[in-house]
Amino acid sequence: MTEDYRIIDIKLDERTILWRNADIEQERRVAIFDLLEGNVFQPAGAAESAYKGPYKVMLGVEEGRLTVAINAADDTPVESFVLPLAPFRRTVRDYFAICDSYYQAIRQATPTQIETIDMARRGIHNDAAETLKDRLEPKVVVDFDTARRLFTLICVLHIRG
């Protein structure tokens, strides 16, 4: 069987998303589009399994933990796991704050100010992606870009209006 360690479909548990504005909805759409265009996603048990991808993934948040359900392309369950989100709470708050500043800056700041805020936003996002990549490693191997996009989607799941 050919190895195809990637996500071909990703969904967010809409029950856990209470509110989002147009900016956040655009971030979600872009993150999903970019993720599906190119990603690395290899569940830990995939090497020993007869099924080696591609995968469909459902993300949700329950009781402060990320829930990840992984299915085969034909929707057969492959595995699921939960990941504590406590290590990301402050990062998510910081990311939301810097994103708010960024969206306000786009409307009224100088290009230099926008660039400065955007660099800070990317820095927080990159640090969060590295942390997420490390936290996922026992369960699933992802590359940096996949971790970045997954962090964006985790942020969408955290919006409480």
Topology:
Blueprint: E1 7-12, H1 22-37, E2 41-43, E3 55-62, E4 65-72, E5 77-84, H2 89-108, H3 111-136, E6 140-142, H4 144-158
Parallel strand pairs: 1-3
Antiparallel strand pairs: 2-6, 3-4, 4-5
Helix pairs in contact: 1-4, 2-3, 3-4
Index terms:
four-stranded mixed beta sheet; alpha+beta; 161 residues; 48% helix; single chain; two-stranded antiparallel ribbon
Strand segment count: 6
The portion of residues forming beta strands comes to 15-25%
Largest β sheet strand count, sense and barrel closure: 4 strands, mixed
- State the helical fraction: 40-55%
The first-to-last residue Cα distance is: 46 Å
Architecture overview:
- It is built from four helices and six strands; from the N terminus they run E-H-E-E-E-E-H-H-E-H.
- The radius of gyration is 16 Å and the shape is elongated.
- The model has no long low-confidence stretch (mean pLDDT 89).
- Helix 1 (22-37) runs antiparallel to helix 4 (144-158), helix 2 packs antiparallel against helix 3 (111-136) and helix 3 (111-136) crosses helix 4.
- It is α+β, with helices and mostly antiparallel strands.
- The chain has one domain (7-158).
- The strands form two sheets. Strands 1-3-4-5 form a four-stranded mixed β-sheet, covered by helices on one side. A two-stranded antiparallel sheet has the order 2-6.
- The protein starts with 6 loop residues before the first strand and ends with a helix.
